[in-house]
Design goal:
about 180 residues, alpha/beta, 2 helices, elongated
């Protein structure tokens, strides 16, 4: 089993935040937080997630990133892109519309996804956001709940790029290029 990623900056950043928060709470309120137990619990959750998703090292493939970073460039419609405990950049700028809608699904959980869409084509984004952030090309955003973004040139009867996005405890940024 590869252990390099557990000693990454993210892991130590979380540990330092826990220690700092514990010291601050103890000094101001007298509340004692068992930082060591919390750290052990986080490590067990981390390992459990790896076992649950069948990943014992970082995994990046054609369609996403799990516990890693990925850069994906595609012009193939009808894909599902997943970012789980990692970050990915999905470049859809090569997608061209024909006679029907092109549908793309994006799932971001405890991670960050940047999605680049072609400028000038009709787009509709249906985002379901839970304790997260979703930013759209018109600089609007959502932090909780459902949000639908439609480009200015979107019409129901014409083909469009349809993006269904679920974001949970993460960030999704959609921008035109």
């Amino acid at each position: 089993m590869r252990m390099g990623s557990i000693f990454s900056g993210v892991f130590w950043g979380i540990i330092l935040l826990l220690i700092g928060g514990s010291v601050l709470l103890r000094a101001t309120t007298g509340l004692k937080i068992p930082v060591f137990r919390i750290a052990v619990g986080l490590i067990l959750i981390y390992w459990g997630g790896r076992v649950l998703f069948g990943v014992f090292g970082s995994c990046k493939g054609k369609n996403g990133a799990i516990f890693s970073e990925a850069s994906i460039k595609t012009n193939t419609p009808g894909k599902k892109y997943t970012t789980l405990f990692g970050s990915s950049m999905v470049d859809l700028s090569g997608i061209q519309l024909k006679d029907e809608n092109v549908k793309v699904n994006s799932y971001t959980v405890f991670g960050s996804t940047i999605m680049i869409i072609p400028k000038g084509i009709p787009v509709i984004v249906k985002a379901n956001v839970v304790f997260a952030s979703a930013k759209f090309p018109d600089d609007s955003s959502a932090g909780f709940g459902d949000k639908v973004y439609r480009s200015d040139n979107f019409y129901n009867e014409k083909p469009a790029l349809v993006i269904d996005a679920d974001v949970v405890f993460g960030e999704l940024v959609i921008r035109e290029e």
